[in-house]
Design brief:
149 residues, 4 helices, 81% helix
Length: 149
């Protein structure tokens, strides 16, 4: 068998593997990251750790920014082909990390908002409907014989 044919088949195989990952798997995983926000938002408020969400949001934002800074110099030529070409070849890493950071930050904001709202409702429910002054007056009236029977 011709060695140049083996090289061609080997290169073709790796090109197909690379194309499968870059053009199919990476966009699917980006979509799954976005979909994870919907799934996690359905979880009870207290089931997600606020500290964990905050740490993940900050760390993944730093990772996304560091990816962008690392890719600025290597992606100068690819920008001439547009955003899609940049995303397929290089940009999927910072984009996925930035989306994940935004999802975690949104879940953290949701947790804090609903917790504050829940505390306000609970605090209002625990207050007596009749103030202690009115209850004291009612007791004094009932001891004098003026209260309800």
């Amino acid at each position: 068998m011709d060695p140049s044919r083996n090289d061609y088949l080997g290169k073709l195989f790796w090109d197909l593997v690379l194309a499968f990952h870059l053009m199919l798997l990476n966009p699917i995983f980006t979509f799954l990251i976005i979909l994870s926000a919907v799934y996690q938002a359905k979880q009870p408020i207290g089931s997600l750790s606020r500290l964990g969400l905050a740490i993940q949001a900050v760390l993944f934002l730093f990772v996304a920014v560091s990816w962008v800074l690392r890719l600025l110099f290597s992606s100068a030529k690819i920008w001439q082909y547009g955003f899609v070409a940049w995303y397929v070849h290089l940009g999927w890493a910072p984009v996925d990390n930035a989306i994940f950071a935004l999802v975690q930050a949104a879940l953290l904001a949701r947790s804090v908002y609903f917790d504050r709202r829940e505390k306000a409702v609970v605090e209002g429910e625990q207050e007596p409907l009749v103030s202690s002054d009115v209850m004291e007056q009612e007791r004094s009236l009932s001891s004098c014989g003026y209260g309800s029977t």
